[in-house]
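Sequence only, no structure available. Ideas?
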Amino acid sequence: MTAFLVLMLFILCIPLYAAWKGEHIWSKMLAFASIATKTAIMILMVSVDRDDWMIGIVGVIILSVGNGALMLLAQILRRLRDVANL
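Reply:
I predicted one. C-alpha cells follow.
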C-alpha cells in the first residue's frame, strides 16, 4: 500500500510538468484536474487503509465537486478569451 502511494506521488509529477510547459489555459486546467483526481484517489486509499470514513468522504467530495468546478472555470476563461479576440 505504501509503495503504491509513493508511485502515485511520482505519477502526480507528470501533470505538474504538463501544466508548467503548457501555453493554453485549457491544457493547464486539465492538468490541474488530473492532479485533483489523483490526490482524491490517494485520499481514498489512505482512508481505506486507516479505516476512517470521514477522510473518505473528503476524497469523494473532491472527486465529485472539485473537478466540475475546475472544468467550469476553464470553460469560462476560454469563452472570455474568445470574446476578447473578436
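The chain has three helices and no strands.
Hope that gets you unstuck.
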